[in-house]
Amino acid sequence: MSEYLTWETYYMPPAQENESSLEFEARIHASYWHRNQKRKYTGEPYIVHPAEVASIVRTVPHTEEMLAAAWLHDVVEDCGVNRGSINEHFGATVSVLVCRLTDISQLSDGNRAVRKAMDRQHSAEGCAEAQTVKLADLISNSRSILAYDPNFAVRYMREKRALLTVMTKGDPTLWAEADRICREAGY
Fold it and tell me: Mean pLDDT of all residues in the chain?
């Protein structure tokens, strides 16, 4: 009697133009790790958000490690993937970037203001490459939150304005776009 294997199916965004093997692996792994998650407001597969972040990063000077980190930026927080797995699959540079993109605060650290201050300091200490990916993430999330949750956007955009004050090393084009979004939202 033969056994049939059933393979999980999940959405994986298409290959990107000039995609390196590192970015390909990051896209595949991120799609798999986020496979059971949906976007909060739209119900789309969650991976559309990392895909958008990667596409934003692609518009400015970048490295293949930055693109890989863009795909993987939420897997530690949202999927329980640990730094060792990132390092093993993608190398130290991507691992460091993903860790810099991951919030470090825990609920036990205090109220939201205290936690966001901790995360802001963590982002401030990041290198230019990490801050560039963080700016792309901020742009992507801000667009979505402003469109779908104007009540939460009041708090969120105030926090993002504070974050921009410490994001001094990231790409200036992305910083200007994030600043524009904040200003148009009244922050």
Answer: 94
Residue 93: its H or E element: helix 92-101
Q: Has residue 32 been placed in a domain? A: yes
Note whether residue 83 is domain-resident. Answer: yes
CA neighbor of 138 nearest in space, from 123, 118, 122: 123
Give residue for tokens 């203001």: 113
- Domain around 26: 21-184
Of 3-7, 74-78, 100-104, 113-117, the range with the lowest mean pLDDT is: 3-7
Q: Does residue 70 form part of some domain? A: yes
pTM: 0.93
Amino acid at 140: S
Could you read off the pLDDT of 19-44 as tens digits, one per residue?
Answer: 999 999 999 999 999 999 999 999 99
Instruction: Please list, residue by residue across 131-164, b when 16 or more beta carbons sit within 10 angstroms of its beta carbon and e when fewer do.
Output: bbbbbbbbbbebebbbeeeeeebeebbebbbebb
CATH number of the domain residue 167 falls in: 1.10.3210.10
